[in-house]
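Person: I keep going back and forth on a fold encoding question. Show me how you would write down a chain together with its backbone fold. Please set it down just below, with no commentary around it:
Helper:
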Amino acid sequence: MDNLNYGIIGNCRSAALISKTGSIDWCCLPEFDSASIFAKILDDDIGGSFNIMVSDDYNISQAYDPNTCILITTFSEGKDCFELHDFMPRYHKHNGDYHSPPEIIRYIKYISGTPKMKVLYQPKLEYALGETETYIKRNFIASLTHKVKFDTVFLYTSFDKKKVLDSEEITLNDDGFLLLAYNEKIFAPTIENIYLELERTKVYWLNWSHKTTKYKEFNTEINRSALTLKLLSYDKTGAVLAAATTSLPETLGEARNWDYRFCWIRDASMVIKVVSELGHENIARRFLKFIVDLIPDKDEKLQIMYGINKEKRLTESTLDHLSGYMGSKPVRLGNAAYKQRQHDIYGILMDVIHQQLVKFKTDIENVEELWTITKGIVWIVSNHWKSPDKGIWEFRTEDQHFTFSKVLCWTAIDRALKIAEILDKKHKIGKWKFLEQEIREDIQKFAWNDDLQSYTQSYGSKHLDASVLLMEPYGFIQASDPKYISTVKAIERELSHDGLMFRYKNKDDFGLPTSSFTVCTFWFINSLFKIGEEKKALEHFKRLLSYSNHLGLFSEDIDFRSKRLLGNFPQAYSHLALIECAVNFSTRGKDEAILESIGNIAAK
C-alpha cells in the first residue's frame, strides 16, 4: 500500500473502500460503524478482502462513472477487456423511501475478446476476531463466525460458485455479477435484476449531481467532493460521519490513530452548511432533526460527538490482534474524545441553524425546537465561555483558553442575536448583545500578541494555530482588518512548509506532527484569497489538488515530505474545505475593487 489509492462506494447506510486494482479492503455491514467484513487496510494478512485478480499482462485503470458514486475499474490486455462496476444500491422506491440495502454489487461488464479473471473472496467477520467459515450452498456462498459473536454474510453470483470460492480462472464471454448481501435474499438475484439495480442507482446519483449548484470553475472537483460528503451521511438519523474508517494513522508508525466513524457536531455542521449551499436541502433537514432528537432536555450540554444512531457513550477499546495500517498500531474502536469539553461546537452549530432559518424560515417544521435549542445554547455559553477547554484539536492534556473556542462562543451569541431578529424575539436582544460584546472584548484583549503581530493559539500563548484563520469566515473580523492580514502573514511564516500547513508547531500529547492536516491548508488558501492574494492562493490550491489520489479524494493528512495521503479516509473536513475554496475561486471577480484595495493593504 504505497498510498491511500482507494475509491469509496456507499448508499448512505454503509460504505466500502476499493483499491485501484479492484480489491475491497474495507467494509462494515450492515452500517458504517458495524464490525468489519473486510479489513485488509488494517491488516494485510488477516483483515480479509474481496479481490478481482488478473494476470500481470493486464492494464488496470479506474474512474468513477461521471457524476455518480459507481466506481468502474477497467481490465484490458490487447483485445481482451472487461469492466468492474462497483456500487451499493440506492434509489427511490414507489412510496418515496430509499432502497438502500446493506449490499455490495460487483457488476462484471464484458467488453471484448476472451478476458480471464480470478476471484479472491476472503471475508473475515467481526474485525477478524475468531474464525470465519465459508460454505457453498445451493443458491449462495455463506460465511459465518460464532466464536466471538454470531454473524453471517451471503455471496450470490452468476459464476460457478466453486470456481469463485477456490479462486479458479473464469473466462468471460458475457456479463456477470457478484452480490455480497448482509441478509439472505428472498428471491435469488438474476443478471437482469442486477443490471436494473445498476441503472436505477446510476439515475439516482445523476439526479443528485444535477441538483448540485454549478460554478464557473472546478465543477468536477466540487461535485466529486459533494458526492463524497453525501456518502458520509447516514440517512437513518441524519448523522454525518467524519470519515468512513478507523485507525488510519496521521503519521506512520505512531499512535495518532482514531476511530472516525462517528458524528462530530463540528465537522457535521460544517458539512451541512456547505452541502446545503450547493442546493441539497434534505441533508440539512435530517441533520437538524438529528440535533433536535439529541437534546431532549433544555439544560443538556452537547457532547462534541455522538454515535451515528445517537449513542452518547463511545467507549474506546483496541483490537490488538490487528497489525494496523502499514504496522501503525493500535487499531481503535470508539473514541474517548466524546467526554471532552470543546466550547466551539456551540458556535458552529448555531451558525448552521441561523443559515437554515435564513434560507427556509417559513419551511422548517421544527423551528420551535430550534428556538428552544438556541436559548439553551446561549445559556450554556453564558455560563461556560470563560472556562478553558480541550480545543478544536482535542488536546488530551490540560485545558486551555483556546482562541478558536472563544471566537466560536462569540459566534454562538452573534448568531443567536440574528435568529432572535428573524423570529421577532426582540426581548432577548438587549441581554444577549451585552454578552456578545463582553466575549468580543475579551478575545481582543487576551488573544492578540503584540510581539508576534498575530492572534495566537490560546490566551497568553506565543504559539500560532491555523484554526484562528477562521476568525474571518465566522465574521469576528474583516479580511481587510490589518490585524487579520498580519495574522495570516504570521501563520504563513511559522506554519507553512512547502505549501502545506501545520495545525500548530507546539508539541502536543504525541510530540511534533510530521504530517499536514489537509483542512488547514485549505483554510490558509481561503485566507490568502480573502486578503486579496488571489494569484498566490490559486497556485497553492492547484498544487494541493494535485496531492489528491487518482480519484480526486483526500484523507485527513498529507505527509510533508512524500506528499502521501495519511489519516482516516475519505475525510469530510478536507472535502468541505475544498468546496469552500473552489466556490471562492469560481465566484471571484465580483468585487474586484474591494479585493484590490485589500491586496494593497496586505502588500504594505
In short: The radius of gyration is 25 Å. Residues 448-604 form a domain with the Glycosyltransferase fold (CATH 1.50.10.10).
